Amino acid sequence: MTETDIWRLNATDLTALTRNREISAEEAVKASIDRMQQVNPALNAVVEDLSSQALDRARNLDKAVGDGEQPGPLHGVPVTIKINVDQKGHATSNGVVALKDVIAPDDAPVVSNLQKAGAIVIGRTNTPEFSFRADTDNDLHGRTHNPWGRHISPGGSSGGAGAAVMAGIGALAHGNDIGGSLRFPAAANGAVTVKPGLGRVPAWNPSQSAERGILAQSMSVQGLITRSAADLHLSMPSLIAPDPRDPFHVPMPWRGEDQTGPIKVAFTKQTFGYDLHPEVDKALDTARDALIEAGYVVEEVAPPDNFEAGRGGYRALMGEVLTLLKADIEAAGSKTIRDIFEVYFQEFPPIVGTDLIKMLAKRSHYAREWSLFMQNYPLVLSPFLPQPFFKPDRDTEGAEGVHEVLGCAVYSYAMNFIGLPAACVPARLAELPHGPQPINIQIAARRWREDMAVDAAAAIEDRVGQMCLPLWKKMGTSF
């Protein structure tokens, strides 16, 4: 196998070779580094190149295995880490110029867990300022581009992660998600992800000087963006390993109990007044048919009020942002991000004071309604966005732009507010006027059952195929 082939391997296929010593960790890492050097100048997905230390670590892992040490489950897998999470000795800039010298004193739990499993960090990926846009651009590192073309945003806030993994820069990409920041980049780039539920993945940044707000704590989760659903089953058990620095982490196994009988899926095309684009409609039908073929029982039925929970939850988050973060945004943010936040506050009028306390209380009501519904329907298949993914900087175009980018994304942030897991997987490659573009859908799952959402994503992927293959063919003509 040549290095030209190695970078194309998914993490699952790669570890089958590295763990059996058919290829070395050094070979695996070098192939991804070569790919990064080839395509990243045009993408700007990786904004800190860690090639040298990655190769050193790969050689050390190879030596350890040669000396008889058991290889980890992710032995030799090249990964990227988002720049808003601590990696010892590197800046946790969060895309903000004023934070470019905030050097992490230690690794965050996700970095530690990935490295303990044998993964090797080859670079750190871009994020928008304060990781609070569904697009990725900032004054510190500049714009990240979507490998499908510059007419499509790469998504955000884990836009660098999504663009990197789909372009072949590493087999796994770390990201996080407070309102869709894993799923937006997955949808933009045709990748696969699962937003874990609350308490599933340990999280904490050793560099932080104060604890985050309660909604930031309860809505934000850490995860991975991959090219295949199988890679989530491979890697997530390592990511969810306990870490005492997160006192609210729940140490549960990745796989839950097997379900008796066919799994029922609630299928909805509700868009709450937003237009459902024909290509999204076709993607939903394809996903439904794939699940039926795989033995699921799919019934068209509306879940509990997603719009009310989603909008209420995001307005509450904006209330917390207004109280705890707005001063920092005003002091350290660019004019672009300051202007965007002003429109955020119009689109999602912040809930503050007594009303915020009431909305925090009502969160349990929404979560309970979903919990009861999911006793009968453990999975919910829905749109992720009602339209194909938007163009770069759409959220800078005033109220209309923010409304298209975030206003319609209630299926996204509702899951953050009530703490349920949700997978995002491509179900169609649409031929649009500007060219081919992936269309992702969402699969929400019962609490603690990320594995069921990923199983369903795998069933859809079996029918549709992995989007990296047509992407790489397209990239061959333009990169």
TrEMBL record:
Gene source species: Ruegeria faecimaris
Coiled-coil stretches: none
A Pfam family the protein falls into: Amidase
Domain of life of the organism encoding this protein: Bacteria
Alphabetical UniProt keywords: Hydrolase
Gene3D superfamilies registered for this protein in UniProt: Amidase signature (AS) domain
Ranges for domain Amidase: 27-452
Protein name (Swiss-Prot/TrEMBL): Amidase
Gene Ontology molecular functions: hydrolase activity
Keyword Hydrolase: yes
